[in-house]
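#structure-requests
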Amino acid sequence: MDNMKSKLKSLLNRRLGFVCFLVFLLWIKTVIAYYADFSLGLNDPLQHLIMIINPIATTLVLLSIPLYIKRARISYIIMGLIYLIESIFLYANILYYREFTDFITSSLILGVSSVSKGLGSSSLNLVKGHDFIYWIDIIILIVLFITKFIKMDTKSLKKLTAAATTSLGLLLFSVNLMIAEANRPQLLSRAFDHAYIVKYLGFNSFLGYDAIKSAMNDKARSTAVGTDMDDVLNYTNENYAKPSKKYFGKANRKNIIVIHLESFQQFLIGMKINDQEVTPFLNSLYHDQNTIAFDNFYHEVGLGKTSDAETMLESGLFGLPSGSFFTSMGPNNTFQSAPAILGQKKGYTSAVFHGNVASFWSRNQVYKNMGYNYFFDQSYFDNSIKNSNNGYGTKDKLMLSESAKYLEQLQQPFYTKFLTVSNHFDFNLPEEDRDDFVGPESSDKHVSDYFVSAHYLDNSLREFFNYLQDSGLYKNSMIVLYGDHFGI
């Protein structure tokens, strides 16, 4: 025991050894925070492994910087400052997540003076009993220095050793990024959820990524001039299509219920497999005399996929050449979208119902900027494992049925949107949700399962329509259904 204590003391009294000790402490409490205070949607063992190792690389790179400084006192002071800043940043993210279910961005840090107003006592309400874990390491370090168990290493470190330490951190980050990209392709280019960046690359990488993205957006805005819109305005004026005299105003003051059919394609309508209709209920709606149906309908989404479809539906804007419009432009812009227009001109109340986490595609920020009054996300539904759909949120039948209690309380007329998820790739519907419908034989299981999950979606819609009719909402509502993008 004494020999081990002596070796540990010897290690900690060398500058490089002390850096490794600081990295170890930050790594331990970050991993504890991941599991104790964040919900990062871990779906497989590899994601757990990636999340466990991701704090090491960037922390090692940051703490290797003081190793280039010859003067021991300055080197140790900078080490301490970096360690303290990293600890504060971690805990600030914990408190922020408890309140907003999101992570601290670069713009939030730059505007901290205005953001901090009105906090104080409210922040104290976010503190939990186990939070001492995130600060006890600071006390341990102070005690170790006071008792002189750790002393400053006055010997300057070779630049080659310092460079090797930095290089090791960069190498670990490269390996981390490579594994992350293998598990989640287009991780950085699509970036549909802040939680994805954090769980794959860590807090430091997320902050760096967000800062670069914000700088690019700011640069684009700074070079924009009003005349840039001339071509767009001229085109829209020249191609203006007058409203149909037959239908314009028919739904005035009626409730509007938009149902977003995940990965739903036109060929499913009317299709039979083994003499069974894939979507019998939707078929009946499609051919009903009170339905206006469109079959010349194509998806125009980019990497934003579902969120790009939402953008087009409600704002008439296309997605971006790369990345997601929602995550890149949505949080920092105000949109004259359907919910805002209906609210301003017709006094509509607006709400979104979605069984996934609020931060996915930055919806918790974008919906506010679109003018939505309410967003009922995963936290409003029973999202236990048996009710979850492969990590994409609450199953359609449960989400739609549980939405009823919120829908009934909305001030009418209302504009609402329901986002389904059960027909999401990889279409792996649990056995308990399958009825006697059997998909086609296919060498690709995803293709066969696509029809089974589409059939489940159809059943979910039938049950929801029955509720609308029983509640009386059906008579005073216009219901819009659309498929957001291709499924197979």
